[in-house]
UniProtKB/TrEMBL annotation:
Listed InterPro entries: Isochorismatase-like_dom, Isochorismatase-like_hydrls, Isochorismatase-like_sf
Pfam families assigned to the protein according to its UniProt record, in alphabetical order: Isochorismatase
Transmembrane stretches, start-end: none
Keywords: Hydrolase
Gene Ontology molecular function terms on file: hydrolase activity
SUPFAM superfamilies: Isochorismatase-like hydrolases (SSF52499)
Stated name of the protein: Cysteine hydrolase
UniProt entry tagged with the keyword Hydrolase: yes
Lineage: Bacteria, Bacillati, Actinomycetota, Actinomycetes, Kitasatosporales
Cited PANTHER family: ISOCHORISMATASE HYDROLASE, PEROXYUREIDOACRYLATE/UREIDOACRYLATE AMIDOHYDROLASE-RELATED
Top-level lineage group: Bacteria
Domain Isochorismatase-like, first and last residues per copy: 12-185
């Protein structure tokens, strides 16, 4: 973990990714993760940090656009999984988006590849991304890599992300992510904001 991480609210976004029924259902018990995500969202909102949701859902046209070369998403298209409007795509009721939150819908793994997320962030001068969601080997990994390549500062909330493969989750947190992201647990994130570290004088560099 990295100590004394500070945040400038106007330059920071909390990304809650794939916290929807069809993905959360892959976990044996998602309730604790959802509760920690709720606490992180509440702390971010209170500090004036932009909250962004990224969810996965498909229209009929989206299914048609998936190449048979795509090993991950070909079965999704063939079985019409995560169809827009289906229960699989519904964000957990405990952490429904608020009026000032932004929601992006993607049709691939990472948060950036099929959305306008990067434009949204850059238009607002946001360059610090706090990542949370499911799964660690999926959207979190893809977004850490892509965000770092786009020169964003990346923080992963280590206990506000999870994966059905616990061993892979640990390996990513311990051996992979630290080369491109800082790690912080959800309580430390919330406490840092409540304690006044997000007062606009903390460095985001």
């Amino acid at each position: 973990m990295t100590d004394a991480i500070t945040f400038v609210p106007s330059r920071t976004a909390l990304l809650l990714m794939d916290v929807q029924a069809g993905i959360l259902g892959l976990l044996s018990d998602p309730s604790e993760l959802v509760q920690r995500a709720k606490q992180a969202k509440q702390a971010a909102t209170a500090a004036g940090i932009q909250v962004v949701y990224v969810r996965v859902a498909f229209t009929e046209e989206d299914y048609k656009g998936i190449s048979e070369n795509n090993k991950t998403f070909t079965p999704v298209a063939e079985n019409h999984l995560f169809a827009e409007g289906s229960p699989e795509t519904v964000i957990a009721p405990e952490i429904q988006p608020g009026p000032n939150d932004k929601v992006f819908t993607k049709t691939r793994t990472g948060a950036f590849s099929t959305t306008q997320l990067d434009d949204f962030l850059r238009e607002r001068g946001i360059d610090t991304l706090v990542l949370a969601g499911v799964s660690t080997t999926g959207v979190i990994l893809s977004t850490v890599r892509d965000a770092a390549d786009r020169d964003h500062r990346v923080i992963v909330l280590s206990d506000v992300c999870a994966d059905p493969d616990a061993a892979a989750h640990r390996t990513l947190l311990e051996s992979v992510f630290p080369s491109q992201a800082d790690l912080l647990d959800g309580k430390s994130f919330a406490d840092s904001l409540v304690a006044g570290h997000a007062d606009g004088v903390g460095s985001a560099e």
